[in-house]
Write a structure and sequence with these properties.
By secondary structure, the protein is an alpha+beta fold. It is built from three helices and three strands, in the order H-E-H-E-E-H. Helix 2 links the parallel strand 1 and strand 2.
């Protein structure tokens, strides 16, 4: 009886160890989708910018609603650092939408 219990416990642990990465990857994939375009997010390295960014209300709303995961750059705030690039997750459809939105705006 004791050996059977030990065997069942070992099989259960083995299954958890083998299945856990698969389950985590599936969960990660589901979470890594754009909420607007439902596309899988991809990794990219982008430049880190520093300083105060000034955007209009229209720009903020467009970023939030039309291309929230374009992530072409990351702002590190006002304190400079040696960090020049960072890894981000981005949505290719968001980047396309951002390009279209920029082209459609009147030039200043």
């Amino acid at each position: 009886m004791r050996r059977t219990l030990l065997f069942v416990a070992l099989v259960a642990i083995l299954l958890l160890v083998l299945l856990c990465p698969v389950l985590l990857q599936a969960a990660e994939t589901e979470q890594a989708r754009c909420k607007v375009h439902h596309a899988l997010l991809q990794k990219d390295k982008v430049r880190m910018t520093y300083g105060l960014l000034v955007h209009t209300k229209e720009e903020w709303e467009a970023r939030e609603k039309l291309f929230p995961n374009a992530n072409r750059e990351v702002n590190g705030g006002c304190l400079l650092s040696d960090i020049k690039e960072v890894e981000v997750l981005y949505c290719p459809k968001c980047r396309e939408a951002e390009d279209k939105w920029i082209k459609a705006r009147p030039k200043k």
